[in-house]
Amino acid sequence: MLTNVEHIGIAVKSIAASNELFTKLLNVSPYKSEAVESEGVTTSFFRVNQTKIELLEATNPDSPIARFIEKKGEGIHHLAFEVDDILAEMERLQGEGFTLLNETPRRGADNKLVCFLHPKGTNGVLVELCQEIKE
Ligand SMILES: CC[C@H](C(=O)O)C(=O)SCCNC(=O)CCNC(=O)[C@H](O)C(C)(C)COP(=O)(O)OP(=O)(O)OC[C@H]1O[C@@H](n2cnc3c(N)ncnc32)[C@H](O)[C@@H]1OP(=O)(O)O
Ligand SMILES: [Co+2]
């Protein structure tokens, strides 16, 4: 089951510059910065009450973020939902006809297992499912 919007992903050219901008905008500093090599990104997380913002900068030209910025410029990249059981949710969504971009959950940032749905099947919105990894 989807429980809430976990974060909004924003593609940026420079995390350093965008950290400064979002710190001013949100009046709060980032609580975490983390690279996710498998995704070719480095991330920076802000929290405003229950809402999280994830800034993403590409770490190589093949990164999905690099391709996105090349095509569309900086901006909102994806909407991430928290799920309580990512495998069950992936199965449900696949049954509903959505296209999963990964067959099994993969390690994301901020201690999560993640899976993405193709934006072509979600009205042009890249959707990410996130399940907290319980140590
Ligand atoms: C996991 C770490 C972190 C976390 O939260 O834990 C992250 O969030 S990492 C985020 C970066 N990783 C990903 O985005 C992985 C999933 N994304 C992909 O597999 C690709 O980006 C994909 C398949 C969405 C697009 O692939 P690609 O860019 O190579 O293909 P195209 O350029 O041909 O795009 C196809 C079609 O989709 C449209 N598109 C691309 N990206 C987005 C987007 N973010 N939102 C909406 N639409 C998107 C693109 O414009 C093309 O449409 P068209 O009409 O043909 O132009
Ligand atoms: Co994300």
UniProtKB/TrEMBL annotation:
Keywords per UniProt: Metal-binding
InterPro entries registered for this protein in UniProt: Glyas_Bleomycin-R_OHBP_Dase, MeMalonyl-CoA_epimerase, MMCE/EMCE_epimerase, VOC_core
PROSITE patterns: VOC (PS51819)
Entries under Gene3D superfamilies matching the protein: 2,3-Dihydroxybiphenyl 1,2-Dioxygenase, domain 1
Domain VOC: 4-132
Transmembrane residue ranges: none
Domain of life: Bacteria
SUPFAM superfamilies: Glyoxalase/Bleomycin resistance protein/Dihydroxybiphenyl dioxygenase
Keyword Metal-binding: yes
NCBIfam families per record: metmalonyl_epim
Protein family (similarity comment): Belongs to the methylmalonyl-CoA epimerase family.
Protein name: Methylmalonyl-CoA epimerase
